Amino acid sequence: MVVRADVRAFYDEFLESRMVQYRLFGNRRIELAARRIEPYIHRDHRVLDVGCGIGIVTERIAARARRGRVWGIDLSPRNVWYAAHTVRKSNVSFFTADVLGEGEQIRAQTGGAFDVITMVDVIEHIPEADRPALFASLRALSAPNAMLVLTYPSPQYQRWLQANRPQELQIIDNVVELPALLDETGAAGYGLRHYSLEDVWMRNQYAHCVLQTDEAVATPARAERSLGQEIGQRVQRATRNAFLVPWRRWRFVTRVLNEEQRESPRAVDP
Ligand SMILES: C[S@@+](CC[C@H](N)C(=O)[O-])C[C@H]1O[C@@H](n2cnc3c(N)ncnc32)[C@H](O)[C@@H]1O
Q1: How many Å apart are CA 242 and CA 248, to the nearest integer?
Q2: How would you class 91 by CB atoms within 10 Å of its CB: exposed for 0-12, middle for 13-18, buried for 19 or more?
Q3: What parts of the chain have a pLDDT lower than 70?
Q4: For a Cys staple, 103 with which of 12, 54, 93, 137, CB 3.0–4.6 Å?
């Protein structure tokens, strides 16, 4: 069994050996994860980024939640220190926390009630036996209708790494199978909103999984729209009705029915 202190030491060291490279050269895995998350973030949301590393995705989330508040937490104090010294946004805070078993400290420090919780490349580094309790704790920290976004290496990619590049695996690096994940998150009160395999540097390399609290998934409701989206949709509808619908009426109704009438005239009532 791997002890927490070793995991912490591993990620403290990972900062320099790997993570700072993401700031220098960019990183397609992180970019795709950020793009998956962004549409779920509204400007007044409260968001928790678990295992935030050096805070690149946390920063992107904070740019969307302009009137909200974002917290990045990580087991590695060195990652948290670096994130706090490089991400300068007034609506973001970082602090060191172990998401396993420190739910109450996280609530005390943030107030909980998160609208979105994100874990970018983190769930595969959580011991399998701890996952059910972790999801229950995240659910307890969430607002009603909250989302949980998980991005992680796909099972097929993890198995390929195990067979071909075991030296690239991290200190804890599990295969996260979808049926097990759905059982565990389902028991914690989450339903599936989205699952996809993503091509990053290899085909089907990552999995993107978006869950939402049961009460939201179970009940159809009008999708929430911002004022900008509402106005945009009204303008689009008015333009469609003024220009496109008359043309479609001519193309798919008047013209075809006239043609039918010419080819086989129907009897017209006297
Ligand atoms: C592969 S890194 C991903 C970092 C960042 N999200 C990214 O995508 O670049 C995994 C991160 O999870 C953190 N982590 C692992 N176990 C954790 C735990 N129990 N609580 C909080 N953070 C944890 C590690 O310290 C590390 O920064």
Answers
A1: 11
A2: middle
A3: 218, 220, 267-270
A4: 137
- Supply angle C-alpha 58, 5, 207, rounded to 5: 40
**Can you give the pLDDT at residue 215?**
74
Helical H runs in 142-213? Answer: 155-164, 178-187
User: Which single residue is written with the structure tokens 């995705």?
Assistant: 57
207 pairs with which residues across the strands?
152, 197
Report in angstroms the alpha-carbon separations of 13 from 10, 40, 72, 114.
Answer: 5, 32, 19, 30
Q: Are 76 and 19 in contact (CB under 8 A)?
A: no
Which protein residues touch ligand 1 with a CB less than 6 Å away?
7, 11, 30, 51-53, 73-76, 79, 98-100, 120-122, 125
In this structure, the residue with its CA closest to atom 14 of ligand 1 is: 51
Contact predicate 152/207, CB 8 Å: yes
